[in-house]
Every structure is written in C-alpha cells, then in structure tokens.
Amino acid sequence: MKRKLILFLCIAISFTVLFGLFMVNVQAATNYSQSWTNGQGTVNYQNLSGGHYKVNWSNCGNFVAGKGYNPSGTRTMTWSGSASGAQWFGVYGWTTGPLVEYYIGRSGGTSKGSYSTSKGTYTLYIKSVTGPSIQGNTTFQQYNCSGNSGSGINLGEHFNGWKKLGVGGGSPNYCIVATEGWGGSSGSSDVTVD
Questions:
Q1: Residues annotated catalytic, as ranges
Q2: Mean pLDDT per segment of 10 residues, for the chain of length 194 residues?
Q3: Distance, first Cα to last Cα, the chain
Q4: Superfamily name and number for 31-193
Q5: Domain extents for the chain?
Q6: pTM for the whole structure
C-alpha cells in the first residue's frame, strides 16, 4: 500500500511539473499579428505558425506588419530574421494613458535625455503626431529611442527609463517586431519572433 501511494505521488508530481512546463511554453508564444496598410501599392503579408511571418511589398504608400504580444507587458522581445528594403525594422508598440507610439532603435523629434538599459544607453526623442492610431485618427506622442535595435530588447527597462526622464508611465498595449515601409519602397522580410 505504501509503495502504491509513493508511486502515485511520483506520477502526480511528474505530471504537475510537465504540465507547468507546457503552460510556460504556451504563455510565451506570440499572441498578436498585425498587417496594416494605407492601401497604396502592394503588400503581401503571411501570418505563419508560431512567431513566424513573411511580408513582401512593392511601391507601397505606408504599411506596418509584424508579430508580437498584446498586451506586451514588460517582456524581452527576441527574434531572428531580417528585412530587406524596409524603412524601419525593429521593436514597435503602443501604450495608453498616455497614448504613445514607440520605436526602439530610431531617432527623430526633441531630445528628452538619455537612459541606460542592459543593451546600452538610449536617447529618447519625442514628437507630436496627428494621424492613425490604436484609438482612431487623433493626436498622440511618438517616442523614438535611439540606440541598439538588435534582438533582446527588454521593454520594462525602456518603460522605466522613460519614467526617470519624467515621461511615459502608460499601460502597455501591443508590441511587435515590425517591418515598415513607405514612400514607394519595395522589399521583403522573413522574421520569427520568439
């Protein structure tokens, strides 16, 4: 009887551990895909399994496509792959309260100072934009974070860096590893977001 009880407990513990590992993997999977275009030119987006996506475009007016998380939380964004011919490729997202569109690894706007992360030092540039947003056509702030744009961007470090500069502080909405093109460009990308 004692051996049966021990065997049962061992099986139950093993199942619990395996189920826990399975749930961690499920929760880590990307849960958001985006393909937005202003309708000019040709944009072909493929939302593939897992975090994989492909997009090719020609003579585009403006588009943003990619995969990631909604809400993003403060996770680390990692990926493999690249984009050819894109005007922008990297970590892109939004916060609400305040409404902020952010790009990590690009500049443009008025400098608000610098902050440090595990990927190095970034300079935050802010500008006011009026146009399409996650809350419709409206005016919002765009945060351009000039610095390392490579895989392994910890969002929490950036959110904290903005707060230290006296800005930001909103709730994370979606964040994707994005391919963006405009101005009649053509190109392609093949990316897998972890």
A1: 101, 180
A2: 44 38 48 96 97 98 97 98 96 98 97 98 98 96 98 98 96 98 97 97
A3: 47
A4: Glycoside hydrolase family 11/12, catalytic domain (2.60.120.180)
A5: 1-29, 31-193
A6: 0.85
